[in-house]
UniProtKB/TrEMBL annotation:
GO terms for molecular function: FAD binding; methylenetetrahydrofolate reductase (NADH) activity. This is Methylenetetrahydrofolate reductase. One of its GO terms (cellular component) is cytosol. It comes from Pseudomonas lutea. Its EC number is 1.5.1.54. It catalyses: (6S)-5-methyl-5,6,7,8-tetrahydrofolate + NAD(+) = (6R)-5,10-methylene-5,6,7,8-tetrahydrofolate + NADH + H(+). The gene is metF. The keyword Acyltransferase does not apply. It comes from the Bacteria. InterPro entries: FAD-linked_oxidoreductase-like (IPR029041), Mehydrof_redctse-like (IPR003171), MTHF_reductase_bac (IPR004620).
């Protein structure tokens, strides 16, 4: 790929055959935009283990886009993780998104042997050397369980120092939080690319619920406007598209090294933003 910024799309593995077919159809559509990679989430504790593996292998071998499995360490033993790394390596996978993960409620306390994502990055490097390009998560608005912002920055630096090659952020709706985070970690000596994670806005109630859980702040003016649209999904989508496009323009203009779209397995919302940004021209 000739572009110097990294554009990528994230999927989640589905439970049904119909959902899986839809995911593949979405991936085929997005493949024609020449992304750097696709990624596929992993249910912490191994709840999606087989589905994540199958999805990643299909994206790589059948849709012909480099695919990166997410891998989380809470709830998985070192032996589980080692076996996954071996499978991925043997299948020619070259990139991994390394996370601590969050166990689904009801699965009890974390029981893995590795506690934090920096431990997982160290483990992957010990087991597989430089084979994988390792992505880690970054939180411009602070991870919700962090003691404070400074602590969270230092914990991010641990992941970079453990051998991460680049990072993808939690989604946010305030470009300043991203620029501030990047500036702060750069002052702490981190130079890896930090790619903004972009969540298209399509449904207000789901977004509000999810944002509360992951600590992403929806600015009051955006929230109030979305609330006012009520059930008018066409207006929500048009407004959401405008807000996200303008934020992405600022991010790219300000030097962001790419964009990672949380597609939720749908092509259209991400592509609407992509087309507004005229990114196709960059990949031509
Ligand atoms: P860590 O970096 O380990 O941080 C977790 C918390 O512990 C933070 O508060 C941090 O400040 C603190 N901390 C970190 N290291 C230390 C240390 N050494 N000592 C003390 N405190 C420390 N979840 C899934 O389950 N599956 C997925 O596929 C998935 N994909 C994601 C993709 C992206 C791009 C992002 C941004 C998140 C994803 N998540 C996923 C969610 C993620 O797993 C959660 O946010 C989780 O709570 C933290 O994961 P982490 O890798 O950032 O953890």
């Amino acid at each position: 790929m000739s572009q110097d910024r990294s554009y990528s799309f994230e999927f989640f593995p589905t439970k049904t055959d119909a959902g899986h077919e839809k995911l593949l159809a979405t991936a085929r559509t997005l493949a024609s935009y020449n992304p750097e990679f696709f990624s596929c989430t992993y249910g912490a504790g191994g709840s999606t283990r087989d589905r994540t593996i199958n999805t990643v292998l299909q994206l790589e071998k059948e849709v012909h886009v480099p695919a990166a499995p997410h891998l989380s360490c809470v709830g998985d033993s070192k032996a589980d993780l080692r076996s996954l790394l071996t499978q991925y390596r043997e299948a020619g996978i070259k990139r991994i998104v390394a996370l601590r993960g969050d166990l689904p409620s009801g699965m009890g306390m974390a029981s893995g042997e590795l506690r934090y994502a920096n431990d997982l990055v160290t483990f992957i490097r010990e087991e597989t050397g430089d084979h994988f390009h390792i992505e880690v998560a970054a939180y411009p608005e602070m991870h919700p369980q962090a003691r404070n912002f400074e602590d969270d920055l230092k914990n991010f630096v641990r992941k970079a120092n453990a051998g991460a090659n680049s990072a993808i952020t939690q989604y946010f709706f305030n470009a300043d939080s991203y620029f501030h985070f990047v500036e702060r970690v750069q002052k702490l000596g981190v130079e890896i690319p930090i790619v903004p994670g972009i969540m298209p806005i399509t449904n207000y109630s789901k977004l509000a619920r999810f944002s509360d859980a992951c600590g992403a702040e929806i600015p009051r003016w955006v929230r109030k406007q979305l609330e006012a649209y009520g059930d008018d999904s066409a207006s929500i989508q048009a407004f959401g598209e405008q807000v996200i496009t303008e934020m992405c323009e600022r991010l790219l203009h300000g030097g962001a090294p790419g964009l990672h779209f949380y597609t939720l397995n749908q092509a259209e919302p991400s592509l609407a933003v992509w087309n507004n940004l005229k990114l196709s021209a960059q990949t031509a």
